[in-house]
Design goal:
By secondary structure, this protein is α+β, with helices and mostly antiparallel strands. It has two domains: about 100 residues, NE0471 N-terminal domain-like (2-Layer Sandwich); about 260 residues, Clavaminate synthase-like (Double-stranded beta-helix, 4-Layer Sandwich). A six-stranded mixed beta sheet has the order 9-10-20-13-22-11. Strands 12-21-14-19 form a four-stranded antiparallel beta sheet. The protein has a three-stranded antiparallel beta sheet with strand order 1-2-3. Helix 8 crosses helix 9. The chain is elongated. About 30% of the residues are buried. Catalyzes the formation of L-carnitine from gamma-butyrobetaine. One of its GO terms (cellular component) is mitochondrion. It catalyses: 4-(trimethylamino)butanoate + 2-oxoglutarate + O2 = carnitine + succinate + CO2.
Length: about 375
C-alpha cells in the first residue's frame, strides 16, 4: 500500500513542515532540507539523479511561505521567492527523519546486518554458473557475501580466466600492482609470501594500500594432495570478543597507526607505503574494517617507544583469538571451487604444503571493491522487484 497524507502544516515559524499520515503517524521535515531537495527541473537533473541547485544559492534559514496538500499523494510548497516545490508522499515517507525510518533506510541501502560465525561455520555454497547467468542466484550470492562475509561458488572450469567472468558479472575487477588477476603458486624468487609453499598466517590482503580491496576471489585450478588447507576467521566476531575481554587492547588496536609497506615488481614496479589501524571503527566504536597483514607490516613504527610494548601485547591477544580453535574454520578447496569473501572482515590463511619439481597447487586470485558489488546488488534487487 502506498502511503497517503491526511494533513500537512508548517511549524516553528515555518522552519519545519509536519506531515500527518493516514495511519496516524507523523513526520517532521526541516524546511532547509526540503528546499535543498526540491525535485523540480530547475533544481534537480532527473536524468542523472543529481542536484542542480548550487549550495551558495541555498538560504539555510529558509522558511515556507505556504504549504498545501494538493492531493493526498503529494504536498506543494511555495517559498518566499515564489519558487514552488512538490514532494510525492512515497518519496517523503522513505525519507522520514524518525529513528525507525532512518534505520530502515540504512538497512535498505547498505545491508548492515552481520551473521557472526566461528569454527561452526556452515560454509554457504552455490553453483558458479548460476551466479553468472541467473539474476536471483547472483542477488542471493551478494546478499550472503554481505551478511556472512564468505561464500563458495562451485563448478567453475579448472583454468585461468574464470574470475574475469565473475568480474564482468558484478561490473569490473580491481586492478592492483599484481595485475587484474594474479597466480598463487610456488615461484622462484617470490615477490609475495603467498607465492611460496609455507604457512600463511591469518591476514587481510593489501593494508599497504590507502583503500584496501573490499572483496577477494580465489579460484582453485590445481590442488596439492597433502597440505594447502585454507583457513578463515570472522574478524568482526573476534573484534567483538576482544572488546569484551580486553577493552584496552581493543582501544590500542583501533587507535594506533601501523606502517605497512610493499615493494617490488609485478604488473609494474611498485613502492607502496601506508598507515592503517589494525581495527577501523565507526562512530559507535564498532569494527568496520580489519587491516592486518603481518608479512607486510613495516619495521618502521611511527609511535613513541614507550607505547610499543603495549601495542605488541594487544596485537598478541588479538592474534591468539584469531587462531583459537573456536574461531577458525578450516576447509580445502577443490579444482573448480571459487571462494569469495569480504576482505575487510574475513581474515584468511593457508596451511603449508610440500614443494615439488612441478607446480602442485595453483589458485588464481582477483579483487573487487564493495562499491562495485553493492551497486550490482541494488541493480539486481531492482530487476527482481520489477519481475
Amino acid at each position: 500500500m502506498k502511503p497517503l497524507i491526511q494533513k500537512v502544516e508548517a511549524l516553528d515559524k515555518g522552519h519545519f513542515v509536519r506531515v500527518e499520515w493516514e495511519d496516524g503517524s507523523e513526520s517532521h521535515y526541516p524546511c532547509v532540507w526540503l528546499r535543498d531537495s526540491c525535485q523540480c527541473p530547475h533544481c534537480f537533473l532527473r536524468s542523472a539523479g543529481a542536484r542542480r541547485l548550487l549550495f551558495e544559492d541555498l538560504d539555510v534559514n529558509i522558511v515556507v511561505k505556504e504549504v498545501t496538500l494538493s492531493d493526498r499523494k503529494k504536498i506543494s510548497i511555495t517559498w518566499p521567492d515564489e519558487h514552488s516545490s512538490e514532494y510525492e508522499a512515497e518519496w517523503l515517507k522513505r525519507r522520514c527523519f524518525s529513528e525507525k525510518a532512518r534505520a530502515e533506510m540504512r538497512e535498505d541501502l547498505f545491508l548492515p546486518e552481520h551473521q557472526y560465525w566461528g569454527s561452526d561455520l556452515q560454509l554457504p555454497k552455490m553453483p558458479f554458473e548460476e551466479v553468472l547467468y541467473d539474476d536471483e542466484s547472483a542477488y542471493k550470492w551478494l546478499c550472503t557475501l554481505k551478511k556472512v562475509g564468505i561464500m563458495l561458488l562451485t563448478g567453475a572450469a579448472a583454468r585461468q580466466g574464470e574470475l574475469l567472468k565473475l568480474g564482468r558479472r558484478v561490473g569490473f575487477l580491481r586492478l592492483t600492482f599484481y595485475g587484474p588477476t594474479w597466480q598463487v603458486q610456488d615461484k622462484a624468487d617470490a615477490n609475495n609470501v603467498a607465492y611460496t609453499t609455507g604457512k600463511l598466517c591469518f591476514h587481510t590482503d593489501y593494508p599497504a594500500l590507502q583503500h584496501p580491496p573490499g572483496v577477494q576471489f580465489l579460484h582453485c585450478i590445481k590442488q596439492t594432495s597433502a597440505g594447502g588447507e585454507s583457513e578463515v576467521v570472522d574478524g568482526f566476531h573476534v573484534c567483538n570478543k576482544l572488546k569484551e575481554q580486553n577493552p584496552q587492547a581493543y582501544q590500542i588496536l583501533s587507535s594506533t597507526a601501523v606502517d605497512y609497506t610493499d615493494v617490488g615488481v609485478d604488473f609494474c614496479e611498485f613502492a607502496v607505503q601506508c598507515k592503517q589501524r589494525i581495527i577501523d571503527v565507526d562512530a559507535r566504536g564498532q569494527a568496520v574494517r580489519i587491516n592486518y597483514n603481518n608479512a607486510t607490516r613495516d619495521t618502521v613504527f611511527d609511535i613513541p617507544a614507550e607505547k610499543v610494548r603495549p601495542f605488541y601485547a594487544a596485537l598478541k591477544e588479538f592474534n591468539d583469538l584469531l587462531n583459537s580453535t573456536e574461531h577458525k574454520f578450516i576447509y580445502k578447496l577443490k579444482p573448480g571451487d571459487v571462494v569469495t569473501f569480504d576482505n575487510w572482515r574475513v581474515l584468511h590463511g593457508r596451511q603449508s604444503y610440500q614443494s615439488g619439481a612441478e607446480v602442485t597447487r595453483h589458485l588464481e586470485g582477483a579483487y573487487a571493491d564493495w562499491d562495485v558489488l553493492m551497486s550490482r546488488l541494488r541493480l539486481l534487487r531492482r530487476i527482481l522487484s520489477r519481475d
